[in-house]
Specification:
Number of helices: 23
Strand order of the largest sheet: 3-4-5-6-9-10-11-12-13-14
Low-confidence stretches: 170-185, 264-279, 564-590, 688-697
Largest sheet: 10 strands, mixed
Structural class: alpha/beta
Mean pLDDT: 80
């Protein structure tokens, strides 16, 4: 729902967001009242010393103020629990409680200031515990006040002026959705640009970076424009969307299993889904001889090595220091080798590479951890095991890398015989930088000089590095016909579908589970936005219950029964049925619902404008999709994985789950590949069917 209007400005908090903060405050105030009451009762007869009456006044005043505060906080919590996200009428009196809380805040601030002067400005002849307990209570009060001030800053909305907010809403209502993708900078874009610059304040500024900040801020501002939702609304919507996705998956699985057991053909729902998947699989090429699990596992270690010592220590927390010390080089800044650039004083990054890949010093041709915007770290090595040269490119690990990820404009990619080929602009610039370094320093020539003729060149990378590796492979294809690429967890918004199909013969991507990065693209995000708004429209569950169910699922792996599934049917959110639903509701409840309904209309319009103005991008090549087997885990407690060959079109929607972030981590990818390799698993071809697995490791 929209942010609450308080003191003539909008705040980034809704009227149903006070349940958990009020509960925490209620527990704190109750504990504080109990503690002060006990201390006052214990020391009641000890205030007859010099200036002791001041301590009595402090305890008495604190008890009174805390009692009033507890009553107001309990009332605010009770009111905030009423209604739902789309029905804020039940919470219409919450502003009265907020103004009463504000009136109480003034005497509390005055009282704590006076109490500070009393407790620290006078000397007391009382027992030490008498006045030091009062001083401790005063110090705690100042700490609470500080965190309350931080909380106010968090919910402060720079765009919160009511007049300004109304002006922007009127402007948006007067103009069509084309205004959302216009080139002129809006107030929203300027605010987002300031936030980006504040977050990335350590990045040195130049014209390219200024342009990147402007592009990213405009992209974010356009995406969230006319969607007056607070952060908790988005979180609750994601929980509902994830629940509906699981419900649809379970329903489809049940239909498929029931049809198979009954010996009859699948239903229309299943046929439609499978037919779409099979249509995309018909365009998939055959796997090459090097697209094997042992090769994927082996070169994943090279990709992991590009992250240097931070990820090595993350994966080897107890033994990492000792293992790095063996391969480190002391005083490297004095005797700096020419083949290692921008490593630290002991070459810890290089030591991590050698530990993970098990290569010798002479096989490490060049290492660069030089990290700037559009200039990405990479290294070149000779792999004796498979007689190949490896170029490994690092993924996202710095703010510069994040800025590169977000600079997601599409630009043409010149490929002979491939029409409509385009790719991620910033990653193309990174690939051109790596290509220039390889050519200027003649690194590949040096590496191939130690191998037999006909050796293969492998380009590997994870995340951002996977996207750059895939584009670099295309750029080097004419010079090195025997080139191949392993792209681990590549970004979804990387290249056009025609370019992705072109790379099927020499690019192999690996995606684990519900990893969000291979599914991230503007069309996918626009569809997720529509799903989210639709879920908020159709849910009658209070927000605090939805958020509790999300946390419960993350911790326990299941959803409580008190959260009802929201309807996310495969139809437009503004069908005649829904319009009839809206028209029958009581008028007093229509404010928030009309707002969400309008946001749905604008989201659909924005999605259409974005689809017309922006190129749709996909992950590259042939994709091995590794998923956790739904039947359970191994005896060791580790997840049991299975895998299937997939296509870029299969990653056309974002999957909301508790693993959507963790599945992207490189150590998770390596663990999944290692387990499948140890079991001699052979991935199947075609769409994955969710049936009980008979594969046992």
């Amino acid at each position: 729902m929209p942010g609450i209007i308080f003191l003539r400005r909008r705040w980034a908090i809704a009227s149903d967001d006070f349940v958990y903060p009020s509960f925490v405050e209620l527990c704190f105030r109750s504990s504080w009242l109990l503690a002060i009451s006990i201390l006052f009762g214990i020391h009641h007869g000890s205030f007859n010393c010099d200036n002791g009456y001041l301590l009595r006044y402090y305890y008495t005043g604190s008890i009174i103020l805390l009692s009033f505060g507890i009553v107001l906080t309990a009332a605010m919590m009770w009111l905030s629990m009423k209604g739902s996200i789309r029905n804020d009428y039940a919470r219409r009196h919450l502003n009265i409680i907020l103004y009463l809380k504000l009136l109480l805040l003034l005497p509390e601030a005055i009282w704590i200031t006076v109490a500070t002067y009393w407790t620290f400005g006078f000397s007391y002849s009382c027992e030490l515990t008498v006045y030091w307990t009062a001083r401790g209570a005063v110090i705690c009060a100042w700490i609470v006040g500080f965190w309350m001030f931080i909380g106010i800053l968090i919910v402060f909305d720079p765009m919160g002026s009511v007049e300004q907010h109304m002006d922007l809403s009127e402007t948006s209502s007067r103009k069509s959705s084309k205004y959302l993708i216009a080139n002129s900078k809006s107030v929203n874009a300027r605010v987002w640009e300031q936030r980006c610059r504040c977050l990335c304040c350590c990045i040195s500024s130049n014209q390219e970076i200024d342009n990147a900040f402007a592009d990213v801020s405009k992209l974010v501002a356009d995406f969230f424009k006319d969607t007056d939702l607070v952060a908790t609304d988005i979180a609750a919507g994601l929980v509902l969307v994830g629940q509906e996705q699981r419900h649809q998956k379970e329903k489809l699985t049940a239909v498929a299993v029931h049809s198979a057991n009954a010996g009859r053909s699948p239903t229309t729902i299943e046929n439609n889904r499978v037919d779409v998947m099979r249509a995309s699989y018909s365009n998939r090429g055959q796997q090459k001889s090097w697209m094997t699990l042992p090769m994927m596992t082996h070169y994943m270690k090279f990709a992991l090595g590009s992250y240097g010592w931070p990820f090595f220590m993350y994966n080897h927390f107890t033994t990492g220091v000792c293992r790095l010390c063996i391969a480190c080089r002391c005083c490297a800044c004095v005797r700096a080798p020419k083949d290692v650039v921008s490593d630290n004083i002991c070459h810890c990054h290089t030591a991590a590479i050698k530990n993970l890949t098990k290569i010798k010093d002479q096989d490490l041709i060049y290492v660069s951890f030089h990290d700037k915007y559009l200039e990405i770290p990479f290294y070149v090595a000779v792999d004796r095991r498979f007689s190949s040269v490896v170029v490994s490119i690092r993924g996202t690990l710095s703010l510069q890398d994040a800025l590169t990820d977000l600079s997601a404009k599409g630009v043409p990619l010149e490929i002979d015989g491939v029409p409509d080929a385009f790719c991620h602009s910033a990653m193309l610039r990174c690939a051109e930088y790596v290509k220039a370094e390889l050519e200027n320093r003649q690194l590949l020539e040096k590496a191939f000089s130690s191998l037999e003729e006909g050796s293969r060149l492998f380009i590997v990378g994870h995340s951002l590095g996977a996207g750059v590796a895939a584009i670099l492979t295309i750029l080097l294809k004419s010079s090195y016909p025997n080139i191949a690429c392993f792209a681990y967890s590549p970004p979804g918004g990387l290249m056009s579908l025609s370019a992705s199909h072109y790379t099927q013969d020499f690019v192999c991507s690996v995606v684990v589970g519900d990893d969000i990065i291979p599914r991230l693209s503007m069309p996918n995000m626009c569809y997720l936005k529509i799903q989210l708004l639709r879920a908020l429209c159709t849910s009658n569950t209070p927000k605090y219950k939805i958020l509790a169910s999300g946390c419960f699922r993350i911790l326990c792996g299941c959803t409580p029964h008190f959260v009802s599934s929201s309807s996310l049917e495969e139809e437009s959110p503004l069908t005649p049925q829904l319009q009839a639903q809206y028209s029958t509701m009581i008028p007093v409840q229509l404010g928030t619902e009309r707002h969400i309904k309008k946001a749905l209309l604008l989201a659909e319009d924005y999605a259409k404008e974005m689809a017309a103005a922006e190129w749709q991008l996909f992950p590259p090549g042939q994709i091995l999709h590794i998923t956790e087997d739904e039947e359970g885990r191994l005896c060791s407690g580790e997840p049991q994985y299975t895998a299937v060959w997939s296509t870029p079109e299969a990653f056309s929607s974002v999957v909301i789950s508790s693993r959507m972030i963790m599945d992207h981590f490189p150590d998770v990818v390596l663990q999944a590949l290692s387990q499948l390799e140890s079991c001699n698993f052979v991935p199947s071809a075609g769409p994955m069917v969710h049936e009980p697995s008979d594969f046992v490791c």
